[in-house]
Design a protein that fits this description.
The chain is an alpha+beta fold. The protein is built from 16 helices and 8 strands. It is extended and about 100 Å long.
Length: 396
């Protein structure tokens, strides 16, 4: 009904009209949840090129991330407990209250909880749920923040699904100390060298890439003090990790702030496991070996050594051919070639944006004779890897 017609309604007619519209909205919401339940069951979003139903709802249905999360949560709860559907249809429950209830609902308590929550607000439902379970762990969160400038550089939260119990917080706004980390891998801020940092911070837009999401951090407005972009991390750890962290702080040389300790740990991990770094070290070793061969001539000792190396290489090749293990050199090549991103592409050209929990997949399955050559390997996220296995009839 258009606005001019609404203006002619009496108060009673207007109230009746909006209440009928609200009833229709609830009916449509339940219908959408029914669709999401069936899509989730069939995993259609994977065939469309999305790593999750949540990604599909955000990209295709144009829901906000929180709206998509609530609908998926409610749809899965509704699929598990049929009583929820009727209560949502008549307004006794809504998306928010169902999501709160879903954290503690089970077959033994569903009737009591649903009855207590009927017609309640979200806050009232949270109070009911609090009596059934301890406090939820906070979600992991990365927040870009502007230091030393206007609030224009502050950006929205990036939230993750992890739930933690014991919060470990620190203030990244503090001045950088000796030995502090220079940023987050993949954030556009280097962990090494001030030249690299100044190069990225001088850009008009810096990007934080996590889980396929890109957030833009605006540059300071004209006439304001230049801001320095940093990142506030929020997560929690268990007792074992906390004990290791405290020990690392005790033995760390120089600054023992949490930032400096995490920076050292991340650099140590990347030095050992980053495919680009490992590939660079391999090339250096091969280059040095070639130079030694040139300096040493082609004597019998060098010839014998080359024969031994060749024999051992062939032996390793035969072992690798019989094993499902993909050699580290080949894995690194595939990760670099595929740019650390799932390669699944839907028929309409949509490429999966997953950049975490990636797996090496054989285009021609290993069980069917597929080899470990890079041409037969690709990166897939876990969901699309399982989907491909189902499609080829290889899923267990």
């Amino acid at each position: 009904m258009c606005k001019p017609l609404l203006s002619r309604l009496t108060n009673e007619q207007l109230v009746d009209s909006i209440e009928r519209s609200a009833s229709k909205e609830r009916s449509i919401s339940v219908e959408i949840l029914d669709h999401l339940v069936e899509m989730d069951r069939r995993k259609i979003h994977l065939d469309l090129g999305f790593r999750s139903l949540h990604s599909y709802c955000v990209a295709r249905l144009r829901y906000s991330e929180s709206a998509a999360g609530r609908r998926i949560c409610a749809a899965r709860a509704m699929a598990q407990y049929v009583e929820i559907r009727e209560m949502m249809a008549d307004g006794r429950l809504n998306l928010s209250t169902v999501c709160v209830l879903s954290t503690v609902l089970d077959p033994s308590n569903k009737m009591a909880l649903l009855q207590q929550a009927s017609g309640k607000s979200r806050r009232e439902t949270e109070a009911i749920v609090a009596r059934w379970k301890p406090r939820r762990k906070p979600r992991e969160r990365i927040t870009p923040i502007a230091i030393g400038g206007s609030a224009a550089g502050r950006a929205q939260h990036v939230e993750y699904g992890g739930r933690e119990r014991t919060q470990v917080a620190f203030n990244p706004a503090r001045p950088r100390g000796a030995g502090d980390s220079g940023g987050l891998p993949g954030s556009g801020h280097s962990a090494h060298g001030s030249d690299e940092r100044s190069g990225t911070e001088g850009r008009s837009e810096s990007h934080l890439r996590r889980g396929g999401k890109i957030l833009a951090t605006p540059s300071p407005r004209k006439g304001t003090a230049a801001s320095h972009t940093r990142f506030e991390l929020r997560f929690s750890v268990d007792r074992e990790v906390m004990a290791m962290l405290e020990r690392a702080r005790k033995i760390a040389p120089g600054s023992s702030t949490l930032e400096s300790v995490f920076g050292r740990l991340l650099r140590g991990y990347l030095d050992r496991h980053d495919p680009a770094g490992r590939q660079e070290r391999r090339e250096k070793r091969e280059s040095h070996a070639a130079k030694r061969d040139v300096r040493g001539g082609t004597g019998a000792a060098n010839a014998n050594r080359r024969i031994e190396v060749t024999s051992s290489s062939k032996g390793r090749a035969r072992m690798e051919a019989r094993s499902r293990h993909v050699p580290a050199r080949v894995r690194d090549e595939v990760f670099l070639r595929d740019a650390f991103r799932c390669t699944f592409v839907a028929p309409d050209g949509t490429r999966c944006d997953a950049t975490r929990h990636l797996q090496i997949d054989h285009v021609r399955p290993f069980a069917l004779g597929g080899k470990h050559e890079p041409e037969n390997l690709r990166l897939l996220c876990g969901a699309h890897n399982r989907r491909e296995a189902e499609r080829m009839g290889l899923a267990k």
